């Protein structure tokens, strides 16, 4: 049994004894994800509403499962295929005499 913690037009967040379930109201049963924290659910709702691709690989996989917006899903898949290259400062921590 799950208790509804948050609900709006598109998404519902339910709390069960293991964590939280984020459901897409306009999708099928498959369009849901399990999370340990409520803040993660709210973060994902905000990212999906504003069509921002998450940096975390775990959150990207969750977005692919929850969202039904094809344009946004293509954007996420494109970023997953490219991968993320972050700048690494090679000279960091070098001590000169």
Automatic annotation (TrEMBL):
Tell me the domain of life. Bacteria
Specify the protein name. Uncharacterized protein
